[in-house]
Amino acid sequence: MNPASILVVDDEAPFVRSLVYALKKEGLKPTGVNSCAAALEVLRGTEIDLALVDLRMPEVDGMETLARLKALAPDLPVIMISAHGDTRAAVQAVKAGAVDYLTKPFELDDLIHCIHQALDRRRMHKEIEYHRSRQLSTASLIGASPAMAALREAVERVAGSGTSRILIHGESGTGKALVARAIHAGSRRADQPFVEVNCAALPEQLIEAELFGAEKGAYTGAHQKRTGLVAVAEGGTLFLDEIGEVPLALQAKLLHFLEDGTYRPVGAATVHAGNVRVVAATNRDLAALVREGQFREDLYYRLNVISVAVPALRERAGDALVLAEHFAARYAHQEACAPITLTPETVALLQAHLWPGNVRELKNLIERLTILYPGEVISPAVLPQELRGAAVPPQPGTATGAGAAPVMPATIDHHMDQAERQMLLAALSRSSGHKGRAAETLGISRHALKRRLQRLGL
Ligand SMILES: Nc1ncnc2c1ncn2[C@@H]1O[C@H](COP(=O)(O)OP(=O)(O)OP(=O)(O)O)[C@@H](O)[C@H]1O
């Protein structure tokens, strides 16, 4: 661990010199200055862990110095040094934000103890903040399924790691953008910018300038110098959504940036360095795009060092219901009405639906239902047809997916399967996913329940 850097501010030069000497011998990294102005200059240019400030100084006194230091670095712990008999002023300083005070003359041991105590408190505070932000970061990812628990764990691990390239993949609407934000919020960059770029939404000729910036007149329409999003995200996270849509020409420049952290704005003569964590997301099969020659293999391997897979909603047992309830509460709040509630049959249909549009599809459905039937009990009759026809295997030659006509089962076996599926899911929903209890209510053994679930692919 690096030695803590201590700023000593006192107008008495010999006192500062002797303190600097003593602190160095204690393994700390002190810098001594004789005025408030000099202290502020040091603080602007150097990382300082703690400041020792004399209360009595000519021109700008200790109280004012404390205020100015805190204005520049609010988290900086400051210990005041007061002359004998100055206790009242020292107490005032503590009220104004100093962490402690010492009265001259003091023992070196007392000072060292005071410094370590303040540094420990700051370290602990930072740790708590860090863990709190990590918990907050995954709290937005709703879902009680094992798949979601694993995703939250992966997000926490990845967020806290030092890696600067992350690839998120998953079907459309699964929550990749939410995962990217959670990774940022849980990282040490959380208080720096999070900048989102939808690579599919930008015209090909503008993407480069948008990302890396451009000099005035670099291209037609560039009437003034343009700051790129890489520069805007400096110190933070750059989220490149739909990375699979980046044109091949720009892929080379992106690769260069990912490899050595430098880039050249369009039309610029000089190269810039950028410090951003790049989180990319895609719902395309990048490996297939590589095989088809649409995505650079080297860029694919650069991005794919750490990847996070976001599961489809149909792979998250029980989450459709948890999410439906979450969105019902949210839209009830938005519409200022009571939340909609779902009959067991509706729950069973939600659980059985394959959700090709994933969480986005479910969210839109609950919003629509809340607007149309505020506060009401939702029965299957008011569900869209694609949900009422859920879990029915498509017949050859018929359309499927959102908006398609419901597919009617051809045989009695299909009807039986459908009914069985709904009963099993309703029982599981009532038992909150507890298989033993669900089996009991159905009058079958746990083993039989598992076999039936497996047979129906649930
Ligand atoms: N686990 C979740 N908890 C709460 N809300 C979620 C969850 N997953 C997704 N959402 C919400 O669903 C919507 C779609 O999510 P998001 O935009 O992150 O999906 P995506 O995978 O990035 O989609 P696309 O590939 O189409 O860009 C958003 O409104 C998001 O807030």
Automatic annotation (TrEMBL):
This is DNA-binding NtrC family response regulator. The modification 4-aspartylphosphate is found at residue 54. Residues 141-371 form the Sigma-54 factor interaction domain. It comes from Xanthobacter agilis. It comes from the Bacteria. One of its GO terms (molecular function) is DNA binding. It holds the Pfam family Sigma54_activat. The keyword DNA-binding applies. CDD domains: AAA. InterPro entries: AAA+_ATPase, AAA_lid_NorR, CheY-like_superfamily, Homeodomain-like_sf, HTH_Fis, P-loop_NTPase, Sig_transdc_resp-reg_receiver, Sigma_54_int. Residues 5-119 form the Response regulatory domain. Keywords: Activator, ATP-binding, DNA-binding, Nucleotide-binding, Phosphoprotein, Transcription, Transcription regulation, Two-component regulatory system.
